[in-house]
Design a protein that fits this description.
heterotrimer, A mainly alpha, B alpha/beta, C mainly alpha, B: alpha/beta, Rossmann fold, 2 domains, 12 helices, globular, C: mainly alpha, MetI-like fold
């Protein structure tokens, strides 16, 4: 399988050839690590309320200061990030797996299944994303446990549409016909050829979906949908600080900055990967 | 047949060089060519793809992209077009110098009716009333042999055939009675019958309106039947210039000989089709000396060593050592 | 031609019904089949039909009754909390949401198209770089962050613009900016690529060769031929902009469909949710339809292919 390994090496090399891509990747990894290891980083129990020390400015002891209830804000932000990333990744995985599967099935097999499902999907796609998430959330019952599912399911229509389009492009290519003529089973064709070829595009789309999931998650958090206090994600934290924006701006700005950093680095990674893949061809 | 034209020159090109920069390096598409366009004549440019004919044409009217370097002089009635700003060129285009392109099917803006397109050209150069513009448009459409001009005005370009679109292009180009018409392979994309009609049209308009024409083609047959004088281009240089009959009957440059010999009409039956051996060199890799020497049946040592000077002979010009004494000496 | 338009108009209703069916079914699942309160007038024309076909209560008949009420009587039911009919609650809010959406689309067009043109004209000029950078940034910054920044600068430090409510026209400035952001980026992108591809077509060189001055060339010829993809994108964006405005309305506490919807969701007031969704869906379908009409007006090739019956797509 030497050609395949070379291709991968080429892509990786092309990706890291631009310093911006490397920085973006490092930033993203940094954010993820900080959030994942939050319990180890934050010393005291961040949830402890110190009523007499509210809204302290950032200091050496508390790098992010303290919040409205005197809690260590660094802890709040890190755990907020944990929640955001957990929900977003869960939703992305669900949406991605189901959407891709549906897209491959529709795109590859076509005919009535495809027509019916696509009509349905197109209708759903026409609905604003937030509305869709809300509707699914009502369906499943409000609350964090269910929000991640709602977000995931809401992502399915667009992914299905996208994957289906890509699969249909491939399906008409000749080597699929050739494979069939030498007796490959349908499943074999799907796994070996189709998946192989749409893999890079899928990865790109995965990144894009994840970025969007993070954004939507924080927006819903801001609007207090799907999260109950004291659980907070980045969006909720930003909303908390809105009323004291003038006097204690860091309450809103710090989690905002984290969101921007995460999503920006994801987008840059996506762009870099896109360029690296393009060069291979 | 040599036209009895006054020695009034519309265009004088001296030492024109067109170079451009690509990823593979710098190259010159056209190297120090000089020619003249006399009033009322049809000058044909003939040569293979890549010989630089199209680029020369575009340089006259200023339609080359920005990464191109130009040097030399293109004198139009004394004014050097290469020294003009874009705004000055806009005044010349359509009014004094017009161009017709190879692909008629893509040359007319598909979002406008013919009437609007023609009217736009008139209004830019020679503003007049709407009725006057319409009258002039109809007049011109009749001149280019369009059967139902009134109906034609109302149509959109995509509703018309290739031949009609080319006629309209010619009409549009001549609306303001320019002195020069540049025709870049105007018939290549058309079928043979339409080809003949368009060429006849060009000759007729040249007669009636007195417009000088530069006709570019890779097809020697077309040039032979339409032009008054012919310039043969090879690899960015003009290798021979002569009146059309002289060129056909007594070609002086080996390349011209080769082109004429490979015309289907010239082939005698039962033999292999004659071609010129070898291929055109890449512009990044031009041979030393005479650029044609490695394909030339008459080449001698002087041909490989040095580039030949332009020789004048009886109103003809040729870029070949054969007619120079150094050739005789070996 | 008119037949085609008529056909499209007629198709609006089924599309709308389909959307409502989807949302209605999803909501019904929540109550596990127990009907939530909708206004169900008794003894009317529909009753007679149902009797005739021996259709009793049940999911589908309720759905039909609901659609009938909405479309024929414009009656979405009433809400127990305020005592007003939902129609009365929705209409003024619809007006504000549509105002916000339309203003944002216009802003996106007015800012995005010239930027895209400039970016396409020369490589690596300031417009091109600005376009690339802003696209990247705008897609990475969530709308609430932008809101906060704008509010900080204009409302809190400068004190120029109001933070919430809709006192006068100035209240719309910041919401429109935030809502149009994403759309500006996408409009610029699509304009740049459309213009780039048209710029290199032969009819542009031919027109240039006829002496058409460059400004006229750009706006009359290049732009005119690039409009179709640009407008299609704006129309597709309309859905996103509408979605965006729903969110932004909440940030700025504007009493429009967005805040209405969120509150209804949190209160589990399905009647309101359904009515609001219906109205939003109708608005989207109408915007798309309007965009298609504009495309037909601009593009003569499209008109020709419709008249000759080639275009069959819906």
């Amino acid at each position: 399988m030497t050609p395949k390994r070379n291709k991968l090496a080429n892509i990786v090399r092309a990706y890291f050839s631009r310093p911006l891509n490397t920085i973006a990747l490092l930033c993203f990894i940094l954010v993820v690590l900080l959030c994942v290891f939050a319990p180890l980083i934050v010393p005291e129990n961040y949830n402890t309320i110190h009523v007499n020390r509210i809204f302290e400015k950032p200091s050496w002891q508390h790098i992010f200061g303290r919040d409205r209830l005197g809690r260590d804000y660094l802890g709040r932000v890190l755990f907020g990030g944990r929640l955001t990333l957990k929900v977003a990744s869960f939703a992305t995985v669900i949406g991605f797996l189901l959407g891709t599967a549906a897209g491959i099935l529709c795109g590859y097999f076509g005919n009535t299944l495809d027509t019916v499902v696509m009509r349905f999907i197109e209708t759903l796609e026409a609905v604003p994303f937030l509305l869709l998430v809300l509707v699914f959330e009502i369906m499943l019952g409000l609350g964090t446990g269910n929000y991640r599912y709602a977000l995931g399911v809401a992502m399915i229509p667009r992914l299905t549409h996208f994957v289906r389009a890509e699969v249909m492009k491939l399906r008409s290519q000749e080597y699929i016909e050739a494979s069939r003529s030498i007796g490959c089973s349908e499943m074999q064709i799907i796994f070996r050829h189709i998946l192989n070829n749409i893999f890079p595009i899928l990865i790109l789309q995965l990144l894009r979906c994840f970025a969007e999931a993070v954004l939507t998650c924080t927006i819903c958090g801001y609007l207090q949908i799907g999260f109950t206090p004291p659980m907070a994600d980045w969006g909720t934290l930003v909303a908390d600080g809105y009323h004291v924006l003038r006097v204690y701006p860091w309450i809103s700005l710090l989690p905002s900055g984290s969101v921007i950093l995460t999503v920006l680095s994801l987008n840059l990674i996506g762009n870099g990967l896109h360029d690296a893949l393009g060069q291979k061809q | 047949m040599s036209k009895n034209t006054e020695n009034n020159l519309h265009l004088q090109v001296k030492d024109l060089t067109i170079g451009f920069r690509t990823r593979q390096g710098e190259a010159e598409a056209v190297r120090r060519i000089s020619f003249q366009l006399r009033q009322g004549e049809i000058l044909g440019f003939v040569g293979e793809s890549g010989s630089g004919k199209s680029v020369t044409c575009k340089s006259i009217i200023g339609l080359l992209p920005e990464n191109v370097t130009l040097s030399g002089d293109i004198l139009f009635h004394g004014k050097n077009l290469l020294a003009c700003t874009e705004k000055e060129m806009e005044k010349y285009r359509g009014r004094h110098i017009s161009m017709v392109f190879q692909e008629p099917m893509g040359s007319l803006d598909p979002s406008f009716r013919i009437e609007q397109l023609l009217q736009e050209v008139i209004m830019v150069h020679d503003p007049c009333s709407r009725e006057e513009a319409r009258r002039r448009s109809l007049d011109m459409l009749k001149k280019v042999d369009i059967a139902d001009p009134v109906n034609c005005l109302k149509r959109y370009p995509f509703e018309l055939s290739g031949g009609m679109q080319q006629r309209i292009m010619i009409a549009m180009a001549l609306l303001c009675r320019p002195e020069i018409l540049l025709a870049d392979e105007p018939t290549t994309a058309l079928d043979v019958i339409t080809q003949g009609q368009i060429l006849d049209l060009l000759r007729r308009l040249n007669d009636e309106l007195g417009t000088s024409v530069i006709l570019i083609s890779h097809d020697m047959g077309i040039v032979a039947q339409t032009a008054d004088r012919v310039a043969v281009m090879y690899c960015g240089q003009i290798v021979e210039t002569a009146d059309v009959q002289d060129l056909i009957n007594h070609p002086m440059h080996p390349y011209t000989e080769g082109l004429l010999a490979s015309l289907p009409e010239r082939q005698t039956g039962g033999e292999e089709l004659r071609t010129i051996p070898g291929t055109v060199p890449s512009i990044y890799n031009i041979p030393s000396g005479c650029t044609f020497h490695n394909r030339c049946p008459y080449a001698r040592s002087v041909c490989a060593a040095e580039a030949p000077p332009m020789l004048m002979h009886d109103g003809r010009e040729v870029l070949c050592w054969r007619h120079h004494e150094r050739y005789q000496n070996g | 031609m008119t037949k085609y338009i008529l056909k499209r108009v007629l198709l609006i209703i089924p599309s709308l019904l389909l959307v409502v069916l989807v949302i209605y079914s999803l909501l019904t699942f929540v109550s596990f089949g127990k009907p939530f309160s909708l206004s169900l007038y008794r003894g009317d024309f529909l009753d007679k039909i149902f009797e005739f076909f021996h259709v009793q209560g049940g999911f589908f008949s309720r759905y039909v009754r609901y659609c009938w009420n909405v479309i024929v009587r414009l009656d979405f039911g009433s809400s127990a909390q305020t005592g007003m009919t939902i129609t009365e609650e929705l209409m003024p809010r619809l007006g504000r949401t549509m105002l916000l959406t339309v203003l944002s689309l216009i802003t996106a067009a007015v800012l995005g198209i010239p930027l895209g043109i400039g970016a396409a004209m020369n490589r690596n000029n300031w417009q091109d770089n600005l376009a690339s950078v802003s696209t990247l940034l705008l897609s990475s910054v969530p709308s609430y962050v932008l809101t906060i920044i704008l509010v900080l600068i204009f409302a809190l430090y400068l004190g120029v613009l109001p933070v919430s409510g809709i006192e006068n026209w100035t209240s719309y400035i910041m919401p429109v900016i935030v809502t149009s952001m994403g759309s500006i980026a996408e409009t610029t992108q699509i304009t740049r690529s459309a213009i780039s591809s048209v710029m290199n077509r032969q009819y542009i060189s031919a027109s240039k060769g006829m002496g058409i001055p460059s400004r006229q060339l750009t706006y009359m010829h290049i732009l005119r031929n690039s409009l179709t993809p640009i407008i299609s994108t704006l129309a597709r964006n309309a859905a996103a902009v509408l979605g965006s405005s729903l969110i932004v309305e909440n940030f700025f506490t504007i009493p429009a469909l967005g805040s209405y919807l969120i509150k209804a969701v949190n209160d589990r007031n399905f009647t309101r949710v359904l009515g609001c969704s219906f109205v939003i869906a109708a608005a989207l379908i109408l915007i798309n339809f309007a965009a298609d009409l504009v495309n037909i007006l601009i593009d003569p090739k499209l008109r020709a292919s419709i008249s000759s019956g080639k275009a069959g797509e819906v």
